[in-house]
Amino acid sequence: MKWFINFVKDERGVETLEVSVAGLTIAGGAAAGLTAIKDDVQSKSDAIITAITVDAG
After folding, report:
1. Both ends of the chain: CA-CA distance in Å?
2. pTM for the structure as a whole
């Protein structure tokens, strides 16, 4: 039981963990945002290619 109390009271590495979680959150948000932008650009380029193909047809 004493080891558990010592484990709970030990705060070494907590700041590193907090910074890591914040960094992962920011990286995840950036990845999601870039994926959304990529999908939007891809759909716009597909629409342009379709329009050019239909007009040239």
Report:
1. 79
2. 0.56
